[in-house]
């Protein structure tokens, strides 16, 4: 068997381990699904009329605007939970055991990333389901749904790699669970909940240029038929950039750190 | 590091090297703190070798370097015929490591932990299951095979940990303080397990803070202090170098005490406690002679106890500075855990 075969086998073994954790302890996964669902309900029923009116529509129009934003936020937040799992492994003894075994070095991280992406994507199914139940209607073709899923997977991959690095630099599980907050709330300062154009000038500049805005706009375009323009390519470029930084950083950290 | 995935066959091809572990001049510092200061080791294949020393002596660092977890700053080491620095994957394929802190997946069951190891060793489904079943039986955890490791007691965790280490049938096993924090019964079980490993031809390097443990298990013992080996030999050889064995005699009245002191002029006096300290190994013959001399003087001792050297004595004798601080921490650690 070739080294690639072993690399795939080891990554699959690690993936299976992480998926088993996710199924056995669904709390993290449930949280990843529940938070966006609560956001949907809160923003539609509590603020929907007001914001919708402000944007020149009603509650239904706002639901259509909001759903892609909440889904992007859900994917970002769900992906960030990886750092807790990574840090918890690093502070326990199991990683040192893996390191003294003749296995593909990267498989520990690959397993976490793949597991997290699968889990995050699975969590988005009930979120979209609730949006549909609330009255969200998409005119998207199957191809557009597929593209939407592809975009979300790319976002999940990128953010998860970053999350792995944050998990590796965390000394304790508590600090690992705090670090992701920044990324989780970044979508608020973009076009996820209200158009960036409605914000104050300084914030608007930030909102228009931060990574989650083009992602949100691309998803919105795919699901609601609004103009995507350059946002698609910009999103993919952001995903590639964030993912690459996260990957290279994680790899360097994993090589250099030996935690007890 | 793509080469890292090339499998090195386990226990295959040719005889095992006669020397399982060798190290020359290993050095390691963390910042300006020197942890290993030129360590030499020579462990014959199929033997149990104990590294004995207090906390901070460099035991764990030695194991970390030999098991490829940490790179040495200087010196060379070979494990199972592979250089630790240039062929770490060869080393990894030949070793098993059980560290101070149980390295198991708390969220998985005992059986799943073992199967995880089997999968990572590419054993194949059937062989993996067979191996897991064998080890669950052997380590007396078959009845809790389907319970999560998080629910296990300290002793069970160590047993599962060691079972995981053995899934790959390693040639060389590193046990870093395998019994620290275990109750006496679990400690005995662990000792029996180590003995059975060696009977199977495995080489074991174990670190311990307990002289008794090294005495019970090891063919050879190296006493580690300040990152250097200060003495090396069999348990008997080491003990012979350690003075400090003595018999302590206690008396009820000062008359008897003075009378005994006159009969045993070489004894050290402890006037406050009316006790005499007689140097000697406390063997049956020596004791009989001692009691005969008391009889001849017409004195009866109220109490007699034989003191054998403990780790503190070993250190005092071998290093001249004792285990100041370390000695106390040994004890506190033992009681705290």
UniProtKB/TrEMBL annotation, chain A:
Domain ABC transmembrane type-2 stretches: 27-257
Localization in the cell: Cell membrane; Membrane
Q: Which residues form a coiled coil?
A: none
Key words of the record = Antibiotic resistance, Cell membrane, Membrane, Transmembrane, Transmembrane helix, Transport
Q: Which InterPro entries match?
A: ABC2_TM (IPR013525), ABC2_TM_bact-type (IPR047817), ABC_2_transport (IPR000412), Nod_factor_ABC_transporter (IPR051784)
Q: What is its main location?
A: membrane
Membrane topology note: Multi-pass membrane protein
Q: Does the keyword Zinc apply?
A: no
Q: Which residues cross the membrane?
A: 23-45, 65-87, 108-133, 145-169, 181-199, 233-254
One Pfam family per UniProt:
ABC2_membrane
Q: Could you say which protein family the record assigns here?
A: Belongs to the ABC-2 integral membrane protein family.
For this protein, the record's PANTHER family field holds:
NODULATION PROTEIN J
Q: Supply the name of the protein.
A: Transport permease protein
Question: Can you name the source organism?
Answer: Streptomyces tropicalis
């Amino acid at each position: 068997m070739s080294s690639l075969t072993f690399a795939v086998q080891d990554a699959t073994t690690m993936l299976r381990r992480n998926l088993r954790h996710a199924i056995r302890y669904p709390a993290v996964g449930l949280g990843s699904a529940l938070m966006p669902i609560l956001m949907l309900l809160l923003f539609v029923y509590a603020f929907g009329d007001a914001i919708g009116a402000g944007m020149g529509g009603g509650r239904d129009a706002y639901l259509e605007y909001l759903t892609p934003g909440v889904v992007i936020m859900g994917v970002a937040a769900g992906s960030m939970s990886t750092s807790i799992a990574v840090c918890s492994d690093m502070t326990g003894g199991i990683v040192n055991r893996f390191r003294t075994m003749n296995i593909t070095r990267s498989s520990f991280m690959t397993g976490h990333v793949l597991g997290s992406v699968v889990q995050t994507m699975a969590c988005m199914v009930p979120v979209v389901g609730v949006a549909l139940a609330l009255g969200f209607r998409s005119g998207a073709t199957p191809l557009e749904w597929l593209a939407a899923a592809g975009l979300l997977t790319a976002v999940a991959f990128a953010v998860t790699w970053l999350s792995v690095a944050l998990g590796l630099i965390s000394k304790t599980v508590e600090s690992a669970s705090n670090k992701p907050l920044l990324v989780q709330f970044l979508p608020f300062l973009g076009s996820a909940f209200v158009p960036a154009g409605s914000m104050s000038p300084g914030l608007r500049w930030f909102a228009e240029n931060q990574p989650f805005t083009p992602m949100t706009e691309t998803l919105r375009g795919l699901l609601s038929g609004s103009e995507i323009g350059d946002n698609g390519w910009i999103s993919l470029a952001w995903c590639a950039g964030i993912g690459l930084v996260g990957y290279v950083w994680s790899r360097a950290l994993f090589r250099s750190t030996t935690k007890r | 590091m793509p080469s890292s995935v090339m499998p090195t066959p386990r226990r295959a091809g040719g005889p095992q090297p006669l020397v399982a572990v060798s190290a020359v001049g290993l050095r390691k510092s963390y910042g300006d703190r020197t942890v290993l200061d030129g360590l030499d080791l020579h462990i014959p294949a199929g033997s149990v070798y104990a590294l004995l020393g207090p906390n901070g002596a460099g035991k764990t660092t030695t194991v970390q370097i030999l098991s490829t977890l940490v790179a040495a700053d200087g010196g060379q080491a070979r494990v199972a015929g592979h250089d630790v620095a240039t062929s770490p994957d060869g080393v990894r394929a030949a070793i098993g490591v059980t560290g101070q802190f149980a390295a198991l997946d708390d969220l998985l069951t005992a059986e799943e932990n073992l199967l995880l190891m089997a999968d990572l060793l590419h054993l194949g489904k059937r062989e993996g299951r067979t191996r897991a079943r064998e080890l669950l039986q052997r380590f007396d955890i078959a009845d809790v095979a389907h319970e999560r490791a998080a629910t296990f007691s300290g002793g069970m965790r160590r047993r599962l940990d060691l079972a995981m280490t053995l899934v790959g049938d390693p040639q060389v096993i590193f046990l870093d303080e395998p019994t620290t924090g275990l109750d006496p019964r679990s400690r005995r079980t662990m000792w029996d397990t180590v003995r059975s490993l060696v009977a199977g031809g495995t080489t074991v390097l174990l670190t311990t803070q307990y002289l008794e443990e090294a005495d019970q298990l090891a063919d050879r013992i190296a006493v580690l202090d300040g990152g250097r080996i200060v003495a090396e030999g069999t348990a008997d050889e080491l003990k012979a170098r350690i003075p400090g064995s003595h018999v302590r005699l206690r008396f009820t009245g000062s008359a008897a005490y003075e009378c005994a002191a006159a009969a045993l002029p070489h004894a050290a006096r402890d006037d406050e406690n009316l006790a005499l300290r007689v140097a000697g190994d406390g063997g049956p013959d020596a004791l009989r002679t001692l009691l005969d001399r008391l009889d001849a003087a017409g004195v009866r001792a109220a109490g007699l106890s034989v003191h054998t050297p403990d780790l503190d004595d070993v250190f005092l004798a071998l290093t001249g500075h004792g285990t100041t601080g370390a000695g106390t921490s040994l004890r506190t650690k033992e009681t705290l855990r």
